[in-house]
């Protein structure tokens, strides 16, 4: 028995669509659905002020050394 955890939206028609991973095609499976409603977060209404203080426990420290070019060398190829 395998389990897959997904987060999907049930449409207005009450139908839940599930995408089955490759390897389970063209075969019979027994499915058990256990659901838990999740609270939606309204991201459109959030502003920059809503994020004030999120880094309070991890402050950014700035010293008098300025920008060190050697730090950029460690990131070479990291975003390719």
Report on this model:
It is a single chain. The chain is largely without helices or strands. It contains one helix and no strands. The protein has one helix at about 70-75.
Number of helices: 1
What gross morphology would you assign?
A: elongated
Secondary structure: number of strands: 0
SSE succession: H
Work out the strand percent: under 5%
- Nearest-integer average pLDDT: 77
Distance between the termini: 38 Å
Derived structural class: little secondary structure
State Rg.
23 Å
Major sheet: size, sense and barrel closure? none
Residue stretches low in confidence (pLDDT < 50, at least 5 long) are none
Helix content: under 10%
Quick synopsis:
With 80 residues, the protein is mostly loops. It has one helix spanning 70-73.
Task: Spell out the blueprint of helices and strands.
Layout: H1 70-73
Question: Main traits of this protein?
Answer:
80 residues, little secondary structure, 1 helix
């Amino acid at each position: 028995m395998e389990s897959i955890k997904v987060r999907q939206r049930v449409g207005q028609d009450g139908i839940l669509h599930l995408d089955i991973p490759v390897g389970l095609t063209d075969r019979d499976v027994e499915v058990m659905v256990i659901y838990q409603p999740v609270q939606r977060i309204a991201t459109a209404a959030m502003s920059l002020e809503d994020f004030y203080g999120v880094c309070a426990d991890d402050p950014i420290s700035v010293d008098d050394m300025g920008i060190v070019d050697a730090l950029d060398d460690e990131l070479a190829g990291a975003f390719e």
